[in-house]
Amino acid sequence: MSYCLNPNCQKPENQDSAKFCQTCNANMLVGDRYRSVTLLGQGGFGRTFLAIDELKPSKPFCVIKQFSSQGLEINQYQQAAELFQQEVIRLDELGRHSQIPELVAHYQKENCQYLVQEFISGQNLAGELKEQGAFNQHKIRQLLNNLLPVIQFIHTHNVIHRDIKPENIIRRKSPNLRIGVLTDELVLVDFGAAKYAIASSAMRVETSIGSPEFAAPEQTRGKALFNSDLYSLGVTCIHLLTQASPFELMDIDRNWVWRDYLNGNTVSNDLGKILDKLIAIVPSQRYQSADEVLKDLSPQSAIVINKDDSPQFPAISPPPSIHEDLGDGIILEMTSIPSGEFVMGSPDYEEAHENNESPQHLVKIPPFFMGTFLITQAQFRAIMNASPSYMVGGDRPVECVSWNAVVEFCTILSQKTGRKYRLPSEAEWEYACRAGTRTPFHFGDGINTDLANYDGRYIYRAGSRGEYRQTTTPVGTFPPNAFGLYDMHGNVWEWCQDFWHDDYIGAPTDGSAWERGRSSIYRVLRGGSWYGYPWYCRSAARGRGKQGDWKLYYGFRVALTL
Fold first, then answer.
1. Average pLDDT in the 105-120 region?
2. CA 11, CA 334: separation in Å to the nearest integer?
3. In the chain, where does the domain assigned CATH 3.90.1580.10 lie?
4. What is the pLDDT of residue 220?
5. Rounded CA Rg of the chain
6. Whether the predicted pLDDT of 178 surpasses 50
7. Which intervals hold domain Protein kinase (predicted)?
8. Residue 35, phi-psi category: left (phi > 0), alpha (psi -120 to 50), beta (remainder)
9. What residues are annotated to the active site?
């Protein structure tokens, strides 16, 4: 079925292929290509339709927003037209972010304006709350870690959203291969109320816009600030935790009493303090930026905290494992990595992103085993009868190993054990490192030297300055990720099986090693090292080395397919 866009049409339903409406003879296509298939909603200043792009063979879904001037008084029309134009401008500026709908086109036809944008398939958080009940604190942490970088992104473009609420946050249900996002990524929609913040308007009082339940007090008085969005995000969180209207979560003196409405739900003291600071009534007592919130969240997003704060995905605690006896009491522990799919690489807005981490692409990974720890000097000596390491210690990772030496180790290990040990593919390595996360590190958006071994004199994003140890640390010193793997960030760079390629164009999507298309002289390294900057420790960061080279910061771990 196709749907006529004429606001006055009495019978808008038409056949799929109709070029003109059978009732009113109006053109059925917007811009001669976009066909409305159903009405999604209406109210306020216009209507929203689900549509398809007829000029593309796959006819992908999109959304048409229609604004009509009919029936409006002059002042209403002017306000509605201004808001509509604002949304066009905001989406054009911001829609390149994977968690903001992309503006596809903008048309004006007769008395109507049309905005065509990317269709976000999924349920908004208001619907999710209604169906599944109150969010627990794990889901709230995930929400904050997922959305705060988006809010920081729009704020750096001098845009204040002004209407953050559960209805405007959609959990994407299906992969979008154009930008490479996962099925559970949160998308911030509806920039119709967004405001462009400029110095000349800093003191100007404006019309109150937004949803009263979620809007900051200063915004309801017509003065939205950047941290007004943070207030709305915080109120969204306590609403999702309690299922109560935000108006009910304040007493008569306008003090927050949201903890009285948790109804058995638990919130840690650390998370509670973060939420309290987000929803502070006085703007100066509130967080001033999204990055500040992320910095406070980062320690809690590390994987080892207490039972209540352990991650929900993937639920493999303790993980199944293989313990290979190498002799003389030396054990090689291998952890089972479940099958799954993930988006490999980093988005171009990730800080320190490099072109060799693009384009992002969806990869399916079969189940395999990964070394729980980096190969230690004791393990290397047990197989090779020698260790080349400079920073000596049996429980420290072996270093000064070339790719060629590592392959020889795997060959001899396989002969000794009867299993086919190998290096992980680059895709397997990143999948295992991320362990279901999409942040720069498996423990969050920031990094510090309590979580990994790298050159702590340098800072990455929400992290902090720390210790530069100038040496390796014993394996297992730092918290594991959700798969139970240690030292995936820092300590030593890890050899992978793949040839080095300058980008991911043509890369395998089945998890296999990429061993074609380039010279085998250079092989891939992953994970960063004790000697390197924190941004080289990111899950998506890539390094390369000549396969015959050895360095003080080259090491490895092994993989196994049963």
1. 80
2. 65
3. 322-560
4. 86
5. 27
6. no
7. 34-303
8. beta
9. 163
Q: What pLDDT digit, counting tens, does each position of 480-523 carry?
A: 999 999 999 999 999 999 999 999 999 999 999 999 877 778 99
Low-confidence winner among 229-233, 464-468, 494-498, 516-520 (lowest mean pLDDT) = 516-520
Per-residue pLDDT tens digits for 181-218: 344 678 898 765 444 443 333 333 344 455 789 999 99
Q: What pLDDT was estimated at residue 179?
A: 34
CATH of domain 322-560: 3.90.1580.10
**Where does CATH 1.10.510.10 sit in the chain?**
122-301
H/E stretch holding 535 reads none
Handedness of CA 446, 448, 451, 456 (dihedral sign): positive
Helix pair 226-242, 125-132: axis angle to 10 deg: 20
Mean pLDDT of all residues in 269-276: 93
* pLDDT beyond 60 at 19: yes
| Nearest of 200, 199, 275 to residue 236 by alpha carbon | 275
Token readout for 203 is 């003191």
Dihedral over Cα of 6, 9, 13, 19: its sign: negative
When the pLDDT of each residue in the chain is averaged and rounded to a whole number, the result is 85
Looking at the chain, which residues constitute the CATH 3.30.200.20 domain(s)?
A: 2-118
The residues that bridge with 493 in the sheet, in sequence order, are: 554
**DSSP symbols for 199-237:** GGGTT------S-TTTS-HHHHTT---HHHHHHHHHHHH
**Residue 476 DSSP class:** T
With a CB cutoff of 8 Å and minimum separation 6, the contacts of 156 are: none
Q: Is the dihedral of CA 345, 349, 350, 356 positive or negative?
A: positive
Q: Which pTM value belongs to this model?
A: 0.50
Amino acid at 65: K
Fold topology of 122-301 = Transferase(Phosphotransferase); domain 1 (1.10.510)
Tell me the C-alpha distance between 109 and 377, whole Å. 72
Residue 173 annotated as lining a ligand binding site:
no
Task: Give yes or no for a contact between 251 and 311, defined as CB atoms under 8 angstroms apart.
Answer: no
Spatial CA neighbour of 357 closest among 337, 342, 343: 343
